[in-house]
Write a structure and sequence with these properties.
single chain, mainly alpha, about 55% helix, globular
Length: about 150
Amino acid sequence: MFIPARLRFTSERLRLTDGDAPFPFARALQTRSNDGFERQRAARDLMRDLQPWGAPFVVALIGEYIVEILDDIAAALTPDSTRTLGDFITDNAAYWQTTKQRVASYWNVYYRANASSEQRRPYGRNEYVGFKLVEHIEAAVPRHRQAGEE
């Protein structure tokens, strides 16, 4: 599976609106924007009605370091979106393992209890939203599917 690492957009040139059919697809691509605020807005829009094709973009965001985006994803989770993400991680186990490693790595560097930045609040592992998202999504996957017994 390949999704872009970062894309550069000129947001004001995007003439799509929420009601336009291609809008959700554009928002999915905008989750890969080089602008963190644009990624956050796009993630909020994508999570309103998460479709299976959008799950890789959300999982990619879960493996990133901006805690405000992670908070938005966690707040927007519904049983349907959690199931969609669970189906994706089941079908893409290697990518999910990489994402979980990124969650741990970014927490360790940016949010661990001994965080040195005055701008970032330190989080213990058990309170960091990235780990909570991982646990929540994995809990939604039936055990027989996690083990590959489909």
